[in-house]
Design a protein that fits this description.
With 292 residues, this protein is α+β, with helices and mostly antiparallel strands. It contains 8 helices and 15 strands. The chain has a single domain, classed as Double-stranded beta-helix, CATH 3.60.130.10.
């Protein structure tokens, strides 16, 4: 069956597409090239009805570059439910039971409901994320995506000039702290010490500029913290207006792939007593964005 790529019609019709006629567990090199061309254009790709396991998801993801380990998850070692190659985007414990409302891992995971770019808190941030829906709640739990290319293009030349040379500090300590979550161990505070990222980045293939925003941003280098956070909040409000955003309503076995270099995303609320189980593989960017 030939591969079909159909634009969602979201935003400017260049944001988001559905890919059909493909089994991601059995792809050719030509398929991978077509997918890479499509994600360069649309930034978010939806592959419906991909009944895959973690090994098949990892193998498909690995065709797009070097893979990250799930070191950003709060549960590590014996507390993990999934292998270290797979980010656990769920409300389940290692035995598969739904987490209690005040569970530490659940409260940490609420940070996924803030606008963010995956792994921006790592020195080398994420390139692609691939999220597979294994169990979805009856209602809610959508994922929203925002087009950072369109948001950048809509800024005035004066606003763009103000942003171009700015360097931001990113850390999960900041994003979770914004929700009042401060329950970090000393080891976690060292592990997630802030890293520096540019506020504006250029896509290595398309050469398109985009904002590099995330809830992980805590301040701007050499700016007073209150002014920096207000500036980032204003930019985020601009970048997440309805005309730059679309929501994906999950169905079981959807696989969604997005380019973190030109998007932000966030999960939406759902009934926390119902299981929601999504598995994420993450392709790393080729290089760090700033010199040492």
């Amino acid at each position: 069956m030939p591969l079909h790529i159909d634009a969602l019609g979201a935003c400017n019709n260049e944001f988001g597409a559905t890919v059909t006629g493909l089994n991601v567990a059995d792809t050719t090199q030509r398929d991978i090239q077509d997918i890479e061309a499509a994600i360069d254009r649309y930034a978010v790709l939806i592959f419906p009805d991909q009944q895959i396991d973690d090994a098949e998801q990892f193998a498909f993801s690995n065709k797009f570059g070097c893979m990250e380990k799930a070191t950003g998850d709060i549960n590590q070692n014996e507390d993990r439910r999934l292998a270290l190659d797979i980010n656990d985007i769920s409300n389940l414990d290692k035995n598969g039971a739904v987490l209690q409302r005040d569970n530490r891992a659940r409260l940490f995971g609420l940070g996924n409901m803030l606008w963010h770019s995956d792994s921006s808190f790592k020195t080398i941030p994420a390139k692609y994320s691939l999220l597979s829906a294994r169990v979805v709640p009856e209602a809610g739990g959508n994922t929203e995506f925002a087009d950072m290319r369109a948001a950048w293009n809509a800024l005035s030349p004066e606003q763009q000039d103000e942003c171009k040379e700015l360097i931001c500090e990113h850390s999960q300590l900041y994003s979770r702290g914004a929700l009042g979550f401060e329950d970090f161990t000393a080891e976690e505070r060292v592990k997630w010490a802030p890293v520096l990222q540019p506020l504006v980045r250029q896509h290595p293939t398309t050469k398109a500029s985009s904002l590099f925003l995330s809830s992980h941003i805590g301040t701007i280098l050499d700016w007073p913290v209150p002014e920096a956070r207000l500036f980032i909040r204003d930019l985020t409000e601009h970048a997440t207006q309805d005309n730059y955003v679309f929501a994906h309503e999950w169905k079981r076995w959807d696989l969604v792939m997005w380019d973190n270099r030109v998007t932000m995303h966030r999960a939406r609320r759902y009934d926390h007593t119902q299981p929601r189980d999504l598995h994420r593989t993450t392709v790393s960017s080729e290089t760090r964005l700033l010199d040492s």
